[in-house]
Design goal:
There is one protein chain. Helix content is about 45%, strand content about 5%. By secondary structure, the protein is mainly alpha-helical. Helix 2 packs across helix 3. The protein is built from five helices and two strands. It has a two-stranded antiparallel sheet with strand order 1-2. The longest helix has 28 residues.
């Protein structure tokens, strides 16, 4: 009973999710392999979340941020995530007909964004200079 309560506190992936991901990659995974991967991934997620929450507590905050997870990944010698570092949560919009939520989809014209700001001049690297006395005669 105690072990079931403890295990129920954590999120677990399903073996079906792992099997589906393996099939999408073109790999045939048996049920034993999928359950082993589920256990390992679930443990890694719990470990990462615990480390990130330690960074949150040391910063004396009550809100877990992406930066906390980036620090936890760096602490674990894993490459950090790129692309999501906003301080505000994403604004979900309700689709009333289906009961789903979605992120706002903004169309961006790449040409307008590229031409909106002037291009900065990139400095060319300077050749190395040798300090000291030279024996060359001109």
């Amino acid at each position: 009973m105690e072990g079931e309560k403890q295990e129920g506190r954590y999120a677990r992936l399903s073996t079906d999710s792992v099997t589906l991901c393996a099939e999408n990659l073109g790999v045939q995974a048996s049920q034993e392999v999928a359950s082993s991967v589920v256990e390992d991934v679930s443990f890694r997620i719990r470990q990462l979340t615990d480390t990130a929450s330690q960074f949150m507590r040391h910063a004396k905050r009550r809100k877990l941020t992406v930066e906390d997870f980036d620090k936890a990944l760096k602490w674990s010698s894993v490459e950090p995530l790129y692309g999501h570092s906003t301080g505000e949560p994403p604004g979900f919009h309700a689709i009333h007909e289906s009961g789903l939520f979605s992120l706002p989809n903004h169309e961006v014209r790449v040409a307008d964004v590229a031409l909106a700001s002037p291009l900065e001049a990139y400095p060319l690297p300077q050749p190395p200079r040798v300090k000291g006395r030279t024996d060359e005669k001109y």
